[in-house]
Specification:
This protein has 88 residues and is an all-alpha fold. It has helices spanning 4-18, 25-35, 44-57, 65-73, 78-82. It has one domain (4-82).
Length: 88
């Protein structure tokens, strides 16, 4: 069973993302799978990265897990640097 707060958050995030593109059932399933068990815990940022990795692996997102790491932790990973053009 999913908590009401988690369900509301998932819907809010889906609504934000829906403005840009369609959110699939599988994307929601992955969100619930990875973030549901750790919602509002210190483990949540790491679960977000596991979710981003699963999304990328399944071809559901073009955003690299490194980009999410940068967003969450303010870091740029080596993998993230290699996918960007060199600075002028």
């Amino acid at each position: 069973m999913i908590e009401v707060g988690l369900a509301r958050s998932v819907v809010q995030i889906a609504e934000i993302m829906a403005a840009k593109e369609t959110v699939t059932e599988r994307e929601i399933e992955l969100w619930v799978e990875f973030l549901g068990p750790v919602w509002r815990t210190p483990e949540m940022p790491f679960a977000l990265l596991r979710w981003a990795t699963a999304m990328h692996t399944e071809g559901l997102s073009t955003i690299s897990p490194g980009r999410y790491a940068q967003f969450v932790f303010g870091e740029v990973t080596a993998a993230d640097r290699s996918s960007e053009p060199p600075e002028a």
